[in-house]
Design a protein that fits this description.
Keywords: NADP, Oxidoreductase
Pfam family, one: Aldo_ket_red
Oligomer: single chain
Order of helices and strands: EEEHEHEHEHEHEHEHHEHHH
Number of strands: 10
Helix content: 25-40%
Strand content: 15-25%
CATH topology: TIM Barrel
CATH class: Alpha Beta
Bound molecules: NADPH dihydro-nicotinamide-adenine-dinucleotide phosphate, ligand LYEC3VGP
Organism: Scopulibacillus darangshiensis
InterPro entries: AKR (IPR020471), AKR5G (IPR044500), Aldo/ket_reductase_CS (IPR018170), NAD(P)_OxRdtase_dom_sf (IPR036812), NADP_OxRdtase_dom (IPR023210)
Distance between the termini: 41 Å
Protein name: Diketogulonate reductase-like aldo/keto reductase
Number of helices: 11
Shape: globular
Length: about 280
C-alpha cells in the first residue's frame, strides 16, 4: 500500500524521489506557475517537473523560493530540449536552466526526447554534470527500448528514470519490461491523458465505487503500477484533490479493468518521429 504523498521510490543510484509530483507544462511563467508551485508545496507535494521547453523555469524558481519548505526537502526536475542537445550545448543549457530556476543543484535532469545522432553526446554531458555534483540523478524521457539499448552500449551510468507518456490508453508494456530489468524508474507524463478519459464509463464507474474522482482513480492506478506520476494543474483545488489518492487501494480486478482500456493510443508525438 502506498500511504502518503511523502512516499518515495529509491532510484538506482540510491537517491529518493517522491512518487507524486506536480507537472507544469503549459503553466504560464509568472504568477500562474509560481502560484501553482506554491499551492502544491502547501498541499504536501515535494516534487516539481518542468523543462526548458516550458519556458517557466523562472516562475517555478520563484515558487520554490517563496514556499515554506527548504530546498533540500524538494525534488526539482528539468529537461534539456531538443535544440539544446549535443555535449557543449547541453552543458550550456543546464547552466541556463539552473540560473533561471535559481538553484545551486538539480535533483533530476532528463534528456527530453531521443534526438537521433545527438542523444549519446547529450548523455555524456549529463554524466559529467552528475559526476561534478550539479545534479543528484540523471535520466531520459520518451526513450523506447531500442534508444536505451543504444545509450547503454557505451554509457558510464544507467539512466535513473525514463519519463514517458503513460495512461490507460497507452500502457507501454515493452518499455516497462526493459526499464524494470535495468532498474530504470518509470515516470508517467500526461497521466490523466489531459482529461480525455474522465467521462469513460469504466473510469466513472470506479469513481462511483471508490467515492473518488476520475482523476484520482487514474492517478492511483499509476502509483499501483509503480510509476512516479506528475499530474498538472494550475488550480489550487484540483492540485489538492489530485493528490488525495493515499487513502484507498484499487483491487486487482479493478487494476485489470483499467489496464484493459489500453489501445496504444498516444496524445503526444511518437518518439521515433520526434527524434529524427
Ligand atoms: N517528458 C515529456 O515529453 C512530457 C512531460 N510532461 C510532463 O507531465 C506533466 C503532466 O502531463 P500533462 O500533459 O500536463 O497532462 P495531465 O494528464 O497532467 O493533464 C493536465 C490537464 O488536465 C487538467 N486537470 C488537472 N487536474 C484536473 C482535474 N482534477 N479535473 C479536471 N481537469 C484537470 C489540467 O487543467 P488545469 O491546469 O486548468 O487544472 C490540464 O489541462 C506535464 O505538466 C509535464 O510536466 C508532459 C508532456 C510531455
Ligand atoms: O510537454 C512536453 O514535455 C513535451 O515534450 C510535449 O508537449 C511535446 O513536445 C509536444 O507535444 C510538442 O508538440
Amino acid at each position: 500500500m502506498i500511504n502518503s504523498i511523502s512516499d518515495t521510490v529509491v532510484l538506482n543510484n540510491g537517491v529518493e524521489m517522491p512518487r507524486f509530483g506536480l507537472g507544469v507544462y503549459k503553466a504560464e511563467d509568472g504568477n500562474e506557475v509560481t502560484n501553482a508551485v506554491r499551492s502544491a508545496i502547501h498541499a504536501g507535494y515535494r516534487s516539481i517537473d518542468t523543462a526548458s521547453f516550458y519556458k517557466n523555469e523562472k516562475g517555478v524558481g520563484e515558487g520554490i523560493r517563496t514556499a515554506d519548505v527548504s530546498r533540500d526537502e524538494l525534488f526539482i526536475t528539468t529537461k534539456v530540449w531538443n535544440d539544446e542537445q549535443g555535449y557543449d550545448e547541453t552543458l550550456k543549457a543546464f547552466q541556463q536552466s539552473r540560473e533561471k530556476l535559481g538553484v545551486s543543484y538539480l535533483d533530476l535532469y532528463l534528456i527530453h526526447w531521443p534526438i537521433r545522432g545527438k542523444f549519446k553526446d547529450t548523455w555524456r554531458a549529463l554524466e559529467k554534470l552528475y559526476k561534478e555534483g550539479y545534479v543528484r540523478a540523471i535520466g531520459v524521457s520518451n526513450f523506447k527500448p531500442h534508444h536505451l539499448h543504444e545509450l547503454l552500449a557505451d554509457s558510464e551510468f544507467v539512466p535513473a528514470v525514463n519519463q514517458v507518456e503513460f495512461h490507460p490508453r497507452l500502457t507501454q508494456e515493452d518499455t516497462r519490461a526493459f526499464c524494470y530489468d535495468h532498474r530504470i524508474q518509470m515516470e508517467a507524463w500526461s497521466p490523466m491523458m489531459r482529461g480525455r478519459l474522465f467521462d469513460h464509463p469504466a473510469i466513472t464507474s470506479l469513481a462511483e465505487k471508490y467515492q473518488k474522482t476520475p482523476a484520482q482513480i487514474i492517478l492511483r492506478w499509476d502509483l499501483q503500477h509503480d510509476f512516479v506520476t506528475i499530474p498538472k494543474s494550475v488550480h489550487e483545488e484540483r492540485i489538492r484533490q489530485n493528490a488525495n489518492v493515499f487513502d484507498f487501494e484499487l483491487d486487482k480486478g479493478d487494476m485489470d479493468r483499467i489496464d484493459a482500456l489500453n489501445t496504444n493510443e498516444r496524445i503526444g508525438p511518437d518518439p521515433d518521429k520526434m527524434g529524427q
